[in-house]
Recover the amino acids of this structure.
């Protein structure tokens, strides 16, 4: 079946540190891949996406590259800020099979950035 | 657009009571989703609609849960009777098309005592 696996949290970093949150997926066909972010007390919002192999999604200094050969979509940011503290969800929409029409989410990784 | 609107934002009720959560999707969106979020299980898809028709309700926990979408601008999720283990944050989301970005509402935090 289709699934998303992301690194366990919580992740605690100092301001200006480099961030990597790993995400790997299993899917039939060619899924679209997403990172969503949930700030405290809010709903999820799209951070970035990539729809085909080798695409790079980017937004607010965050980047992720769709790697078909390693089935990965790792999230990176060169210098995190306190305001980046949130829970980050990796997700996919499969193009084939019963998963079409909804996102499959990873379990989320909580990031805390200390000043 | 105001985004996805959910009400109430917080609900506290006693075990056995009926609870109704409401959602107004973004105008023009043809997909609507209900999710539940808990610390233990993370985000779970409960049900989703396409053009007001329920497509997949396999995530609905049990018969106590029901969802309706009487028109394109309104959906409800009802729990009757409610139980303490239903305590969670319930999110509604909508999208235009099955492959496009999903927009989430702010959620309803339900506490059943």
């Amino acid at each position: 079946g289709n699934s998303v696996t992301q690194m366990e949290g919580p992740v605690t970093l100092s301001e200006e540190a480099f961030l990597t949150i790993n995400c790997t997926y299993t899917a039939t066909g060619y899924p679209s891949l997403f990172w969503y972010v949930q700030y405290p007390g809010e709903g999820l919002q799209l951070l970035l996406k990539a729809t085909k192999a080798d695409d790079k999604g980017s937004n607010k200094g965050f980047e992720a590259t769709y790697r078909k050969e390693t089935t990965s979509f790792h999230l990176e940011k060169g210098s995190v800020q306190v305001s980046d503290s949130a829970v980050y969800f990796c997700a996919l929409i499969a193009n084939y099979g019963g998963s079409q029409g909804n996102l499959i989410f990873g379990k989320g990784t909580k990031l805390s950035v200390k000043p | 657009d105001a985004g996805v609107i959910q009400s109430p934002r917080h609900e506290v009720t006693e075990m056995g009571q009926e609870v109704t959560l409401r959602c107004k999707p973004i105008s023009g969106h043809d997909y609507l989703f209900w999710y539940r979020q808990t610390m233990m299980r993370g985000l779970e898809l409960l049900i989703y609609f396409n053009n007001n028709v329920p497509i997949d309700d396999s995530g609905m926990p049990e018969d106590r849960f029901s969802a309706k979408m009487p028109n394109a601008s309104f959906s409800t999720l009802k729990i009757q009777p409610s139980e303490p283990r239903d305590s969670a944050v319930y999110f509604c989301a909508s999208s235009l098309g099955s492959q496009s970005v999903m927009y989430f509402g702010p959620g309803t935090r339900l506490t059943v005592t």
